[in-house]
Every structure is written in structure tokens, then in C-alpha cells.
Specification:
Blueprint: E1 25-29, E2 32-36, E3 47-50, H1 55-79, H2 84-95
Antiparallel strand pairs: 1-2, 2-3
Helix pairs in contact: 1-2
Length: 106
């Protein structure tokens, strides 16, 4: 969740960090981005995502995170009225939730 915005990178031709073993990788084939589950294994099929459509699910992720932030705001405002604004601000800042998504250059 911390690096959710890094998933804009494949749309622009870059490679986000995909984590530890198994060794996933992203391959760009024309207008398609293929996500391979394990580079070191011959098992598993890639998931193909049209590069132009990648920002769409990330917009949905952002919408869900904004809704989560709003829920935290309501909950913390009720239970911790003196510090809730700071809590919400730190959550937003740390996860870059409310900032708009950039336009894709891909």
C-alpha cells in the first residue's frame, strides 16, 4: 500500500519494485504490460494489462484510499479530537492519498 503510486511507472515505461522472491517482473510488449509472477520459474502465465488502461484501476485505488482517509477522519475526530487532524494529515502525507494522479505520459 505504501508504494501504490509506483504502479503508474509501467504505463510510462519504467519498472516499479515488485517485491521479494518469487521474482515477479514486468514486460512491456507494444501497448500491453505483462506481469509475470515468477521470472525464475517456467510455471505461471502472465497477466496482460493494456498500458493505456493502467491509470484507471489506480484511480479506483485512490478513490478507495480517500474514502478510508475520510473514515479515519470521522472516527479519530470522535475519539481523539485534539490530534485527529494531525493523524489524518500524516496518513495522507505518508501514502500520498489525496494528491491527484499525474497524467500518463505513455
Amino acid at each position: 500500500m505504501e508504494d501504490w503510486r509506483d504502479w503508474l511507472a509501467p504505463a510510462d515505461g519504467d519498472q516499479p519494485w515488485l517485491g521479494h522472491d518469487p521474482t515477479p517482473r514486468i514486460e512491456r510488449v507494444g501497448a500491453i504490460i505483462r506481469l509475470w509472477p515468477d521470472t525464475d520459474s517456467q510455471e505461471g502465465l502472465p497477466v496482460g494489462i493494456p498500458r493505456a488502461r493502467l491509470p484507471e484501476p489506480l484511480g479506483s485505488v485512490r478513490d478507495e484510499l480517500v474514502a478510508f482517509l475520510e473514515s479515519v477522519d470521522r472516527w479519530a475526530g470522535q475519539w481523539f479530537p485534539l490530534v485527529y487532524a494531525s493523524l489524518v494529515e500524516k496518513l495522507d502525507e505518508g501514502r500520498a492519498i489525496s494528491a491527484p494522479l499525474p497524467e500518463s505520459r505513455g
